[in-house]
Structure to design on (106 residues):
């Protein structure tokens, strides 16, 4: 019986930090699509390092961010006594949200 060294795919590249993941690897771990993970990285929802056309992610850093309690957009993290910001209606379009933030009238 002969063994084919290329028949078995390696699960981990030697010398590579197992904490650093590609978009596809992180998507698999989170149960999301790669496109969703990229969108989250572009939006700043998860920490990512841009490498050429793709991103690299620290599994520990992503887990830490995802463990944080969810805050609504516009909610101040450090100022609990600040007056509430008027929130746009759910489902409002971009222009409606912008008008709500700036206080502009129709």
């Amino acid at each position: 019986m002969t063994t084919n060294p290329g028949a078995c795919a390696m699960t981990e590249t030697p010398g590579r930090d197992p904490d650093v993941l590609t978009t596809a690897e992180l998507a698999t771990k989170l149960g999301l699509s790669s496109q969703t993970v990229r969108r989250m990285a572009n939006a700043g929802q998860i920490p990512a390092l841009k490498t050429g056309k793709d991103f690299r992610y620290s599994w520990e850093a992503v887990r830490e961010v995802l463990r944080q309690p969810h805050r609504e957009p516009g909610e101040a993290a450090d100022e609990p006594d600040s007056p509430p910001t008027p929130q746009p209606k759910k489902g409002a379009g971009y222009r409606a949200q912008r008008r709500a933030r700036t206080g502009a009238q129709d």
Residues 5 and 13 are 15 Å apart (CA to CA). Residues 34-42 form the longest helix (9 residues).
